[in-house]
């Protein structure tokens, strides 16, 4: 990916340099042609039809400054051209990522029906990030029973978040397997798996829009009653006390200042 980006950047600089070179060639050609024609007019003492007098040195400088004024506007296009070329390259990379088919999805030959999540089992899981030398998880065995709350406790960097990321198949374990009701998660549709898991980060992100919009992002078909129930279950009843309730606008440009805990509870309601 880095080599492709480098190649595309060099290519864009070539096009930008070519455009600037052609533009300067045209501008200086205008200067040269203007001086050449002006010397002929003065030498032959031709009459200026606008004034009825012969052309003078002053007329030459008037033409030069007129060309200079016009070409200065053309030079102002150069930064915009550079920005457009770079945006085109970046845009292509973005759409390549969007259109990329997940390699994990390609590995699934037979997608079984999504289980009921009565048990989640980690069997002899070993995992290492590609940027690290040591294993993040080593021979981990874990059984999570349905209808229970499980807390994973450990020091910072011990692999707590990694366990969740493996369950969501953001990464694949180097060794071992993860089972949901004795079904390997690699045999479950990636879309169905992730739609059945609510993941709330420690630092939640609220999307631009209303609180209602944020909650509906988790389930676009949710009814008003379901929205209110999810807020109550997430202990986010403070939303009902806001002036506009669930229609309160949140995001970076919001006029309502929500604490980190309040944002997290809204994110939990969205996950529910």
From TrEMBL:
Transmembrane intervals: 14-42, 54-78
Any one GO MF annotation of this record: ATP binding
Compartments where located: Membrane
Species the sequence originates in: Stylonychia lemnae
Domain ABC transporter as annotated: residue spans: 137-272
The organism's place on the tree of life at top rank: Eukaryota
Keyword match Transmembrane: yes
Protein name per Swiss-Prot or TrEMBL: Abc transporter
Matching InterPro entries: ABC1_TM_sf (IPR036640), ABC_transporter-like_ATP-bd (IPR003439), P-loop_NTPase (IPR027417), Type_1_exporter (IPR039421)
Membrane topology, record value: Multi-pass membrane protein
GO CC, one annotated term: plasma membrane
Leader peptide range in chain numbering: none
Cross-referenced PANTHER family: ABC TRANSPORTER B FAMILY, MYCOBACTIN IMPORT ATP-BINDING_PERMEASE PROTEIN IRTB
Keywords of the record: Membrane, Transmembrane, Transmembrane helix
